[in-house]
Each structure stands twice: as structure tokens, then as C-alpha cells.
Amino acid sequence: DSGKGSMKDFIRYMLSLILPPAGVFLQIGLGTHFWLNVVLTLFGYLPGLIHAAYVIATVDDEETNVPPGP
Length: 70
Prior knowledge:
The protein is mostly helical. Helix content is 67%, strand content 0%. The protein is globular and about 30 Å long.
């Protein structure tokens, strides 16, 4: 994949519409942004959704802690 606009990002956005922390988890794993998104989502769906979209749009796959696949 070449960064922004990939199919992986599309799937993350769609999953975030259902449950915002799920999209963040797929992007960065169990990091600080994930837990922040859980708290924001508990405060309200919209803050969690906005934060999820921000994380997916700004954090590249190469910057995450998730190891590359086989």
C-alpha cells in the first residue's frame, strides 16, 4: 500500500463508524490513542468518531507498533 487512501484505511473508517475504538485498534494497536479513544467514545459517540478519523488519517502504518505480517 502507498499510504493514504488505501483499502486498509477504508476498512478502518468503516469499522470506526460502527465502533470508533476498533478502527483505532486496527491502526495502532493497544497504544495511548486507543485508550484515549475508548474514553472519548464513552463520553459520546461523536468525540470518539472524530478522534478515530484523525488517528486513521494522520498515523501511517509504518509508525505503528504492529509488526509486519508474514
